[in-house]
Amino acid sequence: MDGRKPIIITAPSANCGKTELACRLIAGLKDAQALKITRFHRESHCPVHGVDEQGEDNCDGCAPAPAGFELVDDPEALRTPGKDSDRMIQAGAEPVLWLRAAPHVFEYALTASLKRFDMNRPMVLEGNSAATVSGLAGTVILLWPQKTRGVKASVMPALKRTDVLVLVEAADGPPRRWPNTLKQALAKAGRETTDLPEPVWLPADWWRKPASEAETRLLDRLEVALQA
Predict the structure, then answer these.
(1) In a 3-state reduction of DSSP, which class is residue 204?
(2) Residue of 155, 162, 147, 103 whose CA lies nearest to 127
(3) Are 124 and 9 in contact (CB under 8 A)?
(4) At 123, phi and psi to the nearest 5?
(5) pLDDT tens for each residue of 162-214
(6) What CATH number does residue 13 fall under?
(7) Total count of domains within the chain
(8) Is 48 domain-assigned?
(9) 3-state class of 209 per DSSP?
(10) Around 108, how many Cα atoms within 13 Å sit in the side-chain half-sphere?
(11) 105 within 8 A of 39, measured Cβ to Cβ
């Protein structure tokens, strides 16, 4: 693919802060575009549905499209208050589209979706699935907080192609403590912490605060990775 490499934001589970990080990067990069990615799943294995009182409203992967995928570009749907796509639009991304796809057609659907964007401009892809496509050259950001809702299988490929690692400080305990779930996932993948890039650390409640010095370092690190 010609042009700039897209930025792929990954995380081990739902509610890790992927969309918040995507929005802050969009605001910092300027002239960015964004693609929200949702892969369909069976409701009995849904990582979001029924988890809490907001789970049902926040789940977008339990209702597959008849054709196996759809690229949502309807402004009314994208601007639904509270949706990730609306947050990306408010952060300044233009355009913002939303890909919903089944696993067996995902690679085809992603390739078709990317044709709707100008790859000479900054491009943010929010979703683990993009990092599973080996033929897609991208800058992979792995965001890993201290606590997760388990570890999705879809994040495992990102462990082997992480360009920028973002870890979140513990609210209590020793500073800069590597999350146990990350160390366990690395062991399962046959890798060690030294196989990952030096992390950028965010404070425990980073999503509640204005952009910090750590996020400035993250943008600097990202610019280096994009030029590599």
Answers:
(1) coil
(2) 155
(3) yes
(4) -135, 125
(5) 999 999 999 988 899 999 999 999 999 999 999 999 999 999 999 888 877 77
(6) 3.40.50
(7) 1
(8) yes
(9) coil
(10) 8
(11) no
Beta strands in 51-181 (DSSP E): 69-72, 96-101, 123-126, 139-144, 162-168
Enclosing domain of residue 141:
7-227
Residue 144 and residue 167 in contact, taking contact as beta carbons nearer than 8 Å: yes
Which region, left, alpha or beta, applies to residue 63 given φ > 0 means left and ψ of -120 to 50 means alpha? beta
pLDDT digits (tens, 9 = 90+) for 69-115: 999 999 999 999 999 999 999 999 999 999 999 988 999 999 999 99
* Core vs surface per residue 45-77: b (16+ CB within 10 A) or e: ebbbbebeeeeeeebbbbebeeebbbbbeeeee
**2 in any annotated domain:** no
Of 69, 154, 153, the C-alpha closest to 111 is: 69
Length of the chain: 228
| Residue 64 region by backbone torsions, left for phi larger than 0, else alpha for psi between -120 and 50, else beta | beta
Q: Which two tokens stand for residue 228?
A: 């590599």
HSE, CB side, 13 Å, CA atoms: give it for residue 54: 5
Q: Tokens representing 196?
A: 């990952």
pTM equals: 0.87
